[in-house]
Amino acid sequence: MTSTELAREALPQKIKQTIKRSLGPWGVFLEGFMRHPVMVGSIIPSSRFTINRMLKPVDWANCKLFVEYGPGVGTFCRPVLDRLPRDGQLIVIDTNPLFIEYLRKTISDSRFIAVHGSASDVEEIVRAHGHEKADYVLSGLPFSTLPDGIGPAIAAATHRVIRKGGAFLVYQFTPKARSYMARHFQRIDDALEPINVPPCFLWWGWKDEDED
Ligand SMILES: C[S@@+](CC[C@H](N)C(=O)[O-])C[C@H]1O[C@@H](n2cnc3c(N)ncnc32)[C@H](O)[C@@H]1O
């Protein structure tokens, strides 16, 4: 191959990288979506309205461990770290290695841990990082497109891992997740956030102090 042919072949690659760099986190999210559309489930990250509303009921003063499933490019990570106490910890779990690598590169906060794995292994992951229970778990998982049995298994493991008084925070475009939550969480608050693409349901499943 001549040098002119080599240069011609490298050009589309260069253009792709330039576009990706100029899009910042959006470019990484788009690439993650194009590689695994079913697992990512959405083409646009959550809006700040969704973030603020979802995080509002959290009792931050009593939050030592916050876990997030499916952080993507970290839309929720910085807002969670901004609210988390200095001695708290945020563990995020995502099956997409591209997102985990991006988060490790871009978030340098000693309270932040990015784990490449599945939310269904949350109990082992929490234990491996020295905790018995999580105070809150947040999920951006596309429950309606997860492989059979995974959604119910994640809801069950999440209920076991949350301490009494804590909660499971879920945002979703379809009501599927709520049906999985309702098998374990006796009290679920809900809302609809219209300023999000598309508008999304928000649920807070509370693990009350007087539960068995
Ligand atoms: C809709 S995106 C979430 C985007 C992001 N949290 C936001 O607010 O914009 C769903 C994410 O869930 C991840 N995911 C899918 N299945 C998973 C699983 N079993 N465990 C952990 N993460 C998973 C995908 O890789 C993707 O990053």
UniProtKB/TrEMBL annotation:
Methyltransferase domain boundaries: 67-166
InterPro entries attached to this UniProt entry: Methyltransf_25 (IPR041698), SAM-dependent_MTases_sf (IPR029063)
Pfam families the record matches: Methyltransf_25
Domain of life the protein comes from: Bacteria
Protein known as: Methyltransferase domain-containing protein
UniProt source species: Novosphingobium endophyticum
